[in-house]
Amino acid sequence: VQLQASGGGPVQAGGSLRLSCAASGRTFSSYSVGWFRQAPGNEREFVAAINWSGGSTYYASSVKGRFAASRDNAKNLAYLQMNALRPEDTAVYYCAAQAFARWPPQRPQDFAYWGQGTQVTVSS
Hints:
Blueprint: E1 3-6, E2 9-12, E3 17-23, E4 33-38, E5 45-50, E6 57-59, E7 67-72, E8 77-82, E9 91-99, E10 111-116, E11 118-123
Parallel strand pairs: 1-10, 2-11
Antiparallel strand pairs: 1-3, 3-8, 4-5, 4-9, 5-6, 7-8, 9-10, 9-11
């Protein structure tokens, strides 16, 4: 599975962005998808996860209520809708697929496939 994240960019605090994760491969629909972010000097941080069907989601406490994960398996796409953005949300955002761990997967090592990151910059 190859993943490609897109949709990042500059946005003012309080604004919204929707990230997309495009996947190749026919097995994408059987994988959980995770979203992570990494700010300069920081470790990669879990943001959200969505299970294979889209029926279950899980969020980091820092984004719960503001971010929403979804997916369209027919199109091999996953999304991260980000609302009420804050300057502390500034980071490179990554999507990842397949989870080895029990639900909810939250560690980078729980995922086998990674896309390149997309930069999100939130200005105050």
